[in-house]
Each structure stands twice: as structure tokens, then as C-alpha cells.
Task: structure prediction
Amino acid sequence: MPAQNRNKMPLRALVTGAAGGLGREVAVQLARRGCFVAVTDINGDGLAETARQIGETGTETESIVSDFTGEGAPEAAVEKVVARWGGIDILVNNAGYGVIEPFLDATFKAWTRTLALNVTALAMACKAAGRVMREQRSGRIINITSPGSRMALPDYTAYTASKAGVDSITRAAAVALAPYGVLVNSLAPGMMDTEMQRSTEIDLARANGRDDLQAFLDERTRRIPLGRRAEIAEVAEAVVWLCLDAPDYMTAERLNMSGGLDKD
Ligand SMILES: NC(=O)c1ccc[n+]([C@@H]2O[C@H](COP(=O)([O-])OP(=O)(O)OC[C@H]3O[C@@H](n4cnc5c(N)ncnc54)[C@H](O)[C@@H]3O)[C@@H](O)[C@H]2O)c1
Result:
């Protein structure tokens, strides 16, 4: 699909959790393809850097600093995009949160925060963008899930449960929006060395009583069938493919970009 809509206007995208990591890379790659790209995150400084990088591509951008767990926050972000550019063609639900916590030490706080962002905010964003896309009779939503959504990880259960929720929402939203030609897919990235992944693995090593962090990380890398961690840029390429290039008949798909960690 060219990065233009039926009216020959640049496609209008919203990327959540775009202050760094995968979200920033997806946003910049979409901008390089000519999309107008709105970015949102709770981290204003990181978001400013993302906006600067998008600006270098010469396209238009909009920065929305927002805690997506607030009631109405996802809807407000979508409204801002529509107010600026008259519609929304692409939503990438990438913002994510997770905390290492042994199952028998589970806390209400960690579960509530994780589910509020990864599940509730994602569902509300799908709803808000989906309503606009329904009227447009076009649009694509990509939800970032995780190989963990299908694993038993007793130190990371709030996160894996939330990503199982992402899979469930993706299937439901795909069916709800199919009559209007709106596609909803998800992508499960493998281990990428982002800020979130790094701090999670430090905590995981600690929870497992390991003080040899590098050896612990190397063992985890060796468990990946392709034998290496994912580059952020290559995962972003797959997200952008779903946004712009995947065939119109693909919906309710969960794309596996995990180097064989997850097996479909
Ligand atoms: N890094 C990996 O190995 C990996 C593997 C599988 C899935 N993922 C998923 O990829 C996505 C991107 O993660 P990443 O690895 O790039 O990490 P990241 O920490 O760089 O990105 C997550 C972003 O979400 C933002 N965020 C957190 N809480 C928020 C809130 N309340 N409101 C708004 N924004 C908030 C953070 O500020 C951050 O910019 C996440 O959904 C994550 O679960 C990552």
C-alpha cells in the first residue's frame, strides 16, 4: 500500500509508547515512508527526541505527552490526531509496562498498572481509532504483543497475562472492524535490547539469585533458535510492513518476529 490514502493524502499514523525503543523506531520508519506521524508517551523528554527525528524526515508530526492509563487518555490522543489531520489511518499500540514479581508475591499495584496500560488503554485506543476508521471504511491497527502471551512465566505473570489480553483484543477488534475493511493484526517481537527489556532482565536475574548478569543474559540469548537478539530496526520493519504493505486480506493475524522463540 502506498503511504497515501484514497484522497492522495499522506497516511496519518498514531504510535503509542514512542519515546524510545520499538515505538520510536516504528514512528521514524513510518515518517521515512511519508506518513504523517503522531507520537504519544508518558515520557516527554524521550518523545521530544522522537519528534526531532521525525522532523528530519520532512513530514508532519504531533507530540502528545500522556499517561495512557488515565480514563479517556487514549480517546483524547486519537481525537487530537483527527483534529489535526482529519482522520487516522494507522494506529500502532506499542506502549507497554511490565514488572518482575514472583507469582506468590504478586501485588495489586503491579497487576493494576500493567493491565491498565497493556490491556485497558490498548482496548480503548482500538475502540477510539476503530470508530473513526469505521466511518472512513479503511484503516489498520497493529497491537504489540509478546511471545510471553503463550508462555508460563511465574515471575512475569501480570505481563504475560496482559499480553494474552492483547491477543484476545486483537481477535475481537479484527472481527468487529472487518465489515468496514479495517484490518487489525498483532506482532510478537523477540528479545530486543530496549530499556524495558534491560531493566526487566536485571530484575529477573536478581529474582533468580543470579549475580552474574552477563552470563545470565548470554544463556537467555542462546535459547533463541536464531542464536541472537532481535535488532529494534528489523522488528520495526515488520510492524511497518503490517501498517503499509501487508495484503488487504490479512486480519486477526499474530505475526511472530521472535527468532523462533515463539513457534507458530
Ligand atoms: N523489548 C523486548 O524484548 C520486547 C519483547 C516483546 C514485546 N515487547 C513489547 O514491545 C513494546 C515496546 O517496548 P520496548 O521494548 O520498546 O520498551 P520501551 O520501554 O522502550 O517502550 C515502552 C514505552 O511505553 C511507555 N509507557 C510506559 N507506561 C506508560 C503510560 N502509563 N502511558 C504512556 N506511555 C507509557 C514508556 O515510557 C516507553 O516509552 C511493549 O509493548 C513491550 O511489551 C518488547
The mean pLDDT is 97. Residues 205 and 212 are 8 Å apart (CA to CA). Residues 108-136 form the longest helix (29 residues).
